[in-house]
Amino acid sequence: MSAQPQADLRPSLRILPLHPDWLPQVLEIERRAYEFPWSENIFRDCIKAGYSAWVLSDAREAVNGYAFMSMAAGESHVLNLCVDDAYRQRGYGRLMLLHLMRIARAANMTIVLLEVRRSNKAALKLYESEGFQRLGLRKGYYPAKEGREDAFVLGYDIV
Ligand SMILES: CC(C)(COP(=O)(O)OP(=O)(O)OC[C@H]1O[C@@H](n2cnc3c(N)ncnc32)[C@H](O)[C@@H]1OP(=O)(O)O)[C@@H](O)C(=O)NCCC(=O)NCCS
Questions:
Q1: Which residue lies with its CA nearest to atom 12 of ligand 1?
Q2: What confidence tier does 9 reach under pLDDT thresholds 50, 70, 90?
Q3: Phi and psi for 45 in degrees, rounded to 5?
Q4: pTM of the entire structure?
C-alpha cells in the first residue's frame, strides 16, 4: 500500500458504514457512473447479506462515493467502488480502496480480488498503483453496448 493517499482531503470527509438512508444518493451516483448500474435491489441484497459497505461523506452529509466488499473463506472481493463524477481525481477513490484493504487485512483475509472492465483505464491505474496484479481475464464478463466486454481479474495478496 502507498504510504499516504495524495488526496485533496477536506477534514470533514469521513468514511462511514453505509446506512440504508443513504441509498437514494448512492443510487443517483451509481446511475450517473455506470452504463449498466446496479439496481436498488442489488444494493439492498448486499446490505442484507452483511457485506462490508461504506460511504464517503462530507460535512453536509452528502455522499461523494461508496464501496462494497464481500469477505469469506479468507478471500475479500471488491464488488463496487465508485466516486461521484463531480468529485473524481481528488484521491477519494484511492482513499476508499485503501480503507477496504485495511478492513480486509484486519479481518485476516489473505487476498483482495476484483473484476474490472478491460476499458476502465482509470480504475486499472488506481488498482495497479496500489499493487494489484492481473491474475486473469474473464471473457465477456460484463454487458456492453455492443455485445459483451472482458474483465481483468485483479488480486492483491495480503502478507
Ligand atoms: C475508478 C474511480 C473509483 C477512481 O476514483 P477517483 O477518486 O477519481 O480516483 P483517485 O483520484 O483516487 O485517483 C487514484 C488513481 O487512479 C488513477 N486515475 C483516476 N482517474 C483517472 C483518469 N481519469 N484517467 C487515468 N487515471 C486515473 C490515477 O492513477 C490516480 O492516481 P494519481 O492521481 O496519483 O495519478 C472513479 O473513476 C469511478 O468512480 N469510476 C466509475 C466507477 C468505476 O468504474 N469503478 C471501478 C469499478 S472496478
A1: 91
A2: low
A3: -65, -40
A4: 0.94
